[in-house]
Specification:
The protein has about 375 residues and is of the alpha/beta class. Helix 1 (about 10-25) packs parallel to helix 2 (about 50-60). Helix content is about 60%, strand content about 5%. A five-stranded parallel β-sheet has the order 2-3-4-1-5, covered by helices on one side. The longest helix has about 50 residues, at about 275-325. It has helices at about 10-25, 50-60, 70-75, 95-105, 125-140, 160, 175-185, 190-200, 205-210, 215-225, 230-270, 275-325, 335-345, 350-365, 370-385, and strands spanning about 35-40, 85, 115-120, 145-150, 165-170.
Length: about 375
């Protein structure tokens, strides 16, 4: 029998917990014991939100989360009346959004089972939003289940996490990711292995690389940057290149989506009829949407820069491996010549400093530092011997 949990890679340790909770919840006598707030944590790409969505499906499906019935499908595509998936497009989730959400989900489930809210980025709650959410979690409707996702436990207020049942996802092994790419996405074994390895267990990133030639050529350009940091001018140029590539990547994904959304909204307000529809609220709604889209684009550029920095970090990690005499475990085996040359010319103590510099810049970016300035400062540090 198929199950929604089949899609979770390398997470056997939590699947069992989720399955038995879902089974118990179907048993009327144990409704009292159902945990009403869950917290899914795990590194990027480990699949915390797919895990939460799978759990939501198993709670509302009459067949234990079969993955094929109409309830399962509707829950996955945000079309189920009892399942809400909150995806944050902006940098933060505001208190008004949470208040509105809490009011909306206070109703009894329409199908008689559970009302489930999946919040993909609970780490992006503002403090006041978190407090509003806390109130809802403290006194949940008896049939409402909150599934919160965040990178780590520390990204969520202690008051919230103390009320959640906590599940930690693991980074799936490279072998497991390779197998999924081959079996599920029909990617050739060589490509699957390459993509899984350089993506370090991040399934989404691995699939994106394996199926997108532009992404692969962008990665090549990024991975050459460490070799091009000979002067201040070239360091600044490298920063510009990195930000340009990230912006292009983000633009390519968001542009077509933006257009479709505006088109739909205009249709809803009666586009073309220059008449009252657009005048009374239509153009205001379009402006609102454009604002949201802009905020989403900003976040996508940041995410894309972060991905590029993680790629660069694997280069210095490889250099460190070579400097310590181990060449068999290179992440970037396609760059072994570059890595070896670099390792021979750089002092052994510098790689760890460079890795630190990259991780610091990622933290700054996550705290809304300006992307170009942050990358310029980073490249200048990486340019030092
Ligand atoms: Zn189902």
């Amino acid at each position: 029998m198929t199950s929604v949990f089949d899609n979770l890679v390398g997470q056997e340790h939590i699947i069992e917990i989720l399955q038995s909770a879902a089974t118990a919840s179907r048993d009327g006598a144990q409704t009292q014991e159902m945990t009403h707030a869950w917290l899914f944590t795990g590194p990027p790409g480990s699949g915390r939100s797919p895990a939460a969505v799978a759990f939501a499906q198993s709670l509302i499906c009459s067949n234990k989360g079969c993955g094929i019935c109409s309830d399962c499908n509707a829950a996955k595509t945000s079309g189920h009346p009892d399942v809400e998936v909150i995806r944050t497009e902006g940098l933060s989730i505001k208190v008004e959004e949470i208040r509105e959400l809490v009011t909306r989900v206070a109703w009894a489930p329409s199908m008689g089972g559970w009302r489930v809210v999946v919040m993909e980025d609970a780490d992006r709650l503002t403090e006041s939003a978190a407090n509003a959410l806390l109130k809802a979690i403290e006194e949940p409707g008896t049939r409402t289940v909150w599934l919160l996702c965040a990178p780590t436990l520390h990204d969520v207020l202690p008051t919230i996490r103390s009320r959640c049942r906590y599940l930690q996802l693991r980074t799936p092994s490279i072998e497991a990711v390779t197998q999924v790419l081959i079996n599920r996405d029909r990617i050739s074994p060589d490509m699957a292995q390459f993509a899984a390895k350089v993506s370090q267990g991040h399934i989404g990133r691995a699939r994106y690389l394996a199926t997108n030639e532009t992404a692969r050529s962008n990665r090549k350009v990024i991975m050459q940057l460490p070799m091009q940091l000979g002067s201040l001018a070239s360091a600044l140029q490298a920063a510009q290149t990195l930000v340009d590539i990230a912006s292009e990547e983000a633009k390519a994904t968001s542009e077509s989506r933006d257009e479709i959304e505006i088109e739909k909204l205009q249709e809803a307000y009666g586009k073309g009829a220059t008449g009252r529809g657009m005048a009374t609220g239509g153009s205001k709604a379009v402006k609102e949407l454009e604002k949201e889209q802009k905020s989403r684009a900003t976040r996508m550029v940041r995410d894309s820069i972060d991905g590029a920095l993680l790629d660069m970090a694997t280069f210095y990690r490889d250099v460190m491996m070579v400097q310590s005499g181990s060449t068999e475990t290179l992440i970037n085996s396609d760059l072994s010549r570059e890595v070896t040359t670099y390792a021979a010319s750089a002092p052994a103590s510098s790689s760890i400093k460079k890795l630190d510099a990259i991780m610091e810049s990622r933290t700054h970016l996550a705290m809304n530092a300006a992307p170009l300035v942050t990358c310029e400062a980073l490249m200048c540090r990486l340019a030092q011997p």
